[in-house]
Amino acid sequence: MNSTINWLAANQQVIYIVILMIFVGIEVIGRVPSVLHTPLMSGANAIHGVVIVGAIIVMGQAPKDNIAALILGFLAVVLGTINVVGGFVVTDRMLEMFKKKGPKK
Description:
With 105 residues, the chain is mostly helical. It has two domains: 1-31; 35-105. The protein is 79% helix and 0% strand. α3 runs antiparallel to α5 (67-97). The longest helix is centred in the last third of the chain and has 31 residues, at 67-97. It is flat and about 75 Å long. 4% of the residues are buried.
């Protein structure tokens, strides 16, 4: 219990920043019109490519006998890739809605 309190005291500023980021994120997303939620989320999914790069770096730096780090890194790469591909698929489907249709036959 004492070590937890010491860790909280040492990281107090970081905890405050994370809490503030949560509230700011909720306020920003809450003020976005519902029409823009899909493009916003597809763009955010595409940004998750950073997760893939970070996971690859973690897997490369992990010792070979640390199975937990390798498994978590692998899962992060797989799930990040699915997220990025899903973001691009949603964006492509959105852009298809705005293309002009050909002449009727």
